[in-house]
Amino acid sequence: MGIEEEFLVVDAASGRCVSAQPLIEGGGDDLVSELNDCCVEWNSPIFTEAAAMLGAAVSVRRDLVRRAEASDRRVLGVGMHPNDDVGATIAPDDRHERLARRYPWASVNNVVYGMHVHVGMPSLDEAARVSDLMRPLIPLLVAAGANSPIRGLEPVGAVSTRLLLSPLFPRTGPPPRFGGQAGLDDYIQRMAALGVIRDYRDCWWLVRPHPKFGTLEFRMFDAQSDPVQSVRLACLVRLLAETSRRNGALMPDAEDDVIIEEIVTAARDGFAGTMFNGAHNGRRIGDVLIDVVGPVLDGHPDAEFLQPLLAEAARFEATRSVEDFLRQADLAAHV
To answer: What is the pTM of this model?
Structure first.
């Protein structure tokens, strides 16, 4: 498994967005720019053990915090800027500038920061097949990875404002059903022939079979402040993907509109939200996550590490105060 983590870079005094380029240029090849110039993204190596991934994540954060302080900057791990992203600009990159021209409204108003998890698969065909099985699980994962409850220095009545804004870009919800690599290839070729996309990189589904890496990529998580939570989420989706690949669906699939409504509910209410899927209609998202994960976690090497996630799913805590959220969002508080 591997992770991509996007961090927001702000001015230390004002908290406004500033360029992340000094941190990118001063780091290694695993630090890259993203759509907005105030974002630095870490692309991790490949890991098989949670402890090794956690050690690397802490090390990267420590280095970013140190170099940010040297240039009067702060680094935040949060799904979106708590103060409405004032000052964000497009990163100087041909692809990012093309996206900004094609989707100007989204590029200006969807200034967000996420964490993506790549889970290794035996083949792209398996990745596309397991993608189909992950569709009904997406709302559970949205609730688990929510970390953007504040915008404009006010709670907005949602735990993941980032997810609620994501439809400003197309192809950002649940993936189509592919059935395997042939279905994925056919979709990409048809959309490219019509001019809808250039290639697979213009598909931003919340779960995406990745043709370049042959992985299954999970894209629903907000950026995380605490590296422990980042690694827990990575281990969670690896567990679900591997179990589904071996044993079949953990939940019955549903129509796109049902899954989308559950995603909105999860982004708004987190684990306290309710499901609409026929098999779990009216049940709390947190309870469904426990029912799905609990049986497959028994005896698993990551069981003890993942138990705090299930404990969190069993309760619902009110949205944090602005002050507490800003304090916890600062990477310096976690390294």
So the answer is: 0.93
